[in-house]
# Entry
Amino acid sequence: MTSSSLFLRLSEADLTLVNRYHGTLTAGAESLAHDFYAYLLVHPGTAAVFGDFSREQMKHLLATQTEHVRLLLHGGMDREWQRRMREISARHQALGIAPALVAGAYILYWNHWQTRLREIVPEEERDALLDALFRLIVGNLMAQQDGYNDAARATDTERMTIFRVLLDVMQEPAVDDPQTPPLLHRICEGLVRTSKAIRVACYAIADEGADALAPEFSVGISTANLRIPRHAEDICWTVLREGTPVIQVVDDPAAPSWLHPFRGKIAELVLFPFGTAGMRGVGMVGVTEAGYFRRVGLAYFAAFTNLGDLTLGLRTAALRDPLTDLPNRALFLDRLEHARSHARRQERLLGVALLDLDGFKQINDRYGHGAGDKILQQLAMQMQAVLRPMDTLARLGGDEFAILFLDIERMHDMEALCERILEALRAPVDIGDGLMVSVSGSLGVTLFPLDDSDAETLMCHADLSLYAAKGAGRDQYHLHSPELDEVMHQDFLMREMVAKALQENHLVLHYQPIVMIGGGVIGVEALLRLAHPSRGLLAPRAFAAALDHRRLARPIGCFVLEAAATQGEAWHRENVLPAGEHPLRISINISSHHLLDPLFLDDLRETLSRHPGLAPEMLEIEITESAPLHDLVGAQEVLRACNAMGVRIALDDFGTGAASLTYLQKLPAHTLKIDQGFVRDMVNDPKDFAIVSGVVHVANLLGLEVIAEGAETLEHVALLQQMRCCNVQGYAIAKPMPAQDIPAWLAQYRPIPEKIISSQLHHTPVIMAAHEQRVEQFLAALRNQASFPEHVLEEMAENQCHLGLWLRGEGRLMYGNNPRYSTLNARHHRLHHLAREAKALLDGGKVESARGLGEQLATENTALMDEIRELAAERDC
# Structure
């Protein structure tokens, strides 16, 4: 007899009597079990428990309850019987069925047995049997109450365990420290470490565009190979989409295949969604006990969701640009890693692009940072509007953006997307108060896996392409290629060479004189050279790309300022003067990045203060159009400040860019230097001749000193003098030379004689000087004393030479209505005809006959020149 039997005063005779009628009493066990659950389902509290049970689960419960009816009347309340009662009550506790409800349901048992006893049991045994059955029911309820209490205490213990884990995690501050594990990491570790039932805890983040989920962190059972493919019906993706926790029985035949490795290891898994629409995550906790989450309650895991929200909130703050809410660099690089894997699996192209706004700094400086922020926000929305849903736009900082173009099928698709982005950037932006501003963008792109590189290298290649797009004129895109990579690598080597030369004092200045035609020396231009230990003295073209690099521009500029000022002061102290005149003016080249550097004016002031022996007006700064192109307003302010110090300004390489005429109007310059490329080729290229002539004319009208660079021969000098360009620089005067050679050169220099033009020729168009030079060159070529000039012998050359273009243009405007104009054209065509015949004879070995035609050509040309002079004189009368 057990203590419970003794407590209930159940004798051996009572138990024997019950056992004798056991079969009779349990005959309707199945029906009784049905009535039991029918009773429970009527009660709202228990009905809610069974509301989502499947048909198979209810069938299992009925079978268990039927067995319980039989067990209740068998075993004599021994230890095994009590253990089984405790198990049943533990299940009831897990299901939320309180003992009071079970006691009410046992009335069904009592009524059933009373009916059966009246029908079958003799009256003399009936009361004794009923008394024994009543005591058994009470004993059963006592055992179930004990089991229920034990299960409740175990549940409370488990709840407190979970609560302590969550409380401990929440008490630790959420810090952005690589040494401190994130909140969700600590939750997962704590749950598996402290709970005997929890075998695995992990979480995954649903990245935009990802085709599968994989745990970001996991503790317990290994999930290293776990991958959950994106599928609308999958439980995990359903939880993410609908935002509701779900308990999944692992052995359920309908469970997704990714759960199969967990079979036999855990009984059920709960999935908790967290985060917001921008970034979603799912936490997963697996336990060994079926019904665990019903018993413990999902509410105790709510903090998992709340801390998940907090974690993603912190991550969003850390991975999003606060101004535009776009992904930042860290999130972009993370998505780039996922996108590379996706592109490989799908066998599609992935475009990685870097974008930089053109002209943003000027707008930001002019209208303020508030307006700049509005522009960045608006342009971000405009770009986002033309991107596809799967693409990613990120802001890396300042006015630099990055883009991931996913699932590119053809190169044409990539090009179309780039054009759409650039077009979106060109749309004007309203910055308030009715002000509309426009910017453009430059885009550098590389394509994976054609460019089969890691994420860092892809970014580097996109950056190289961006620089190429900017260098090609901006407002365009450039695709990376291996050739570009090689070019950029060479540029890198070049920059390293220059940086080393600067550090080791291998940069030197040479000086090229600038003279006035018919006059003296007006100054020298300081030209940078690199004294390479093995390659010798290198001219700037060998390291040009390094001179305006952001890292080197200012150090090189400061070196040139100091070296030139030191030399100029020394020449002044030593009285090194051109023919006893004013001190030598020194022109120095300043790169755009140095000129626009906030410290440039301080560099200039400090240089002048260190060299008081050099008057500021003896220093001239030469700038190319690249500096104003970057920031016209900023360049204006800097150059005005230079003027205020007394320093002269020269516009160098004039004519090479579209903005040159704007610079003449906007920039406070004293000198205009015509690019040597135009000057050098003007003898043979009528278009270059026209450009040089036009620039000289404009400069003279504006009162600017004009200097022609690239005057390599006396023919160049003569033509320039005819154009009224008074100052020249080039090999016809002197090559660049070391500073120590300048005094000796000045001592021996004799001015170029100014050509005496007779008064009767002052009406002659300057084009005639160029034409006559070319005729003289052709005649010399027939004598084997020179090369044949261009645009003389080719088919239709008469329409392309200097005089031919003049006759079709200015000459026609001036003399087209004069009957003699047709004579000019006829004589001009005759010249080219004679020239072609003479060259053919020369090629055939008939040298004398060729030279005879050359004499006819000279006579015909003299007549043509006389005709033009007469027409010019008549027009001016």
